[in-house]
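Narrative summary of target 7.
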Amino acid sequence: MFGIGFQELVVILLICLLLFGASRLPEIGRALGKGIQEFKKSTKEGLDENNGDKKGNDEQKS
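Modeled conformation, tokenized:
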């Protein structure tokens, strides 16, 4: 997993807990999850648009 072992992951999580506090971590996680979801959605839509353009160009050439 990206060269990060279990111990390193625990240390990173503890540092985040100390920096942000227990009450802010769920908010940060929720915002990060929504951001990743939006990114995936936009890349999927971009790929769909590109595939649609290629199909349209192929049909025009025929």
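Residues 31 and 37 are 10 Å apart (CA to CA).
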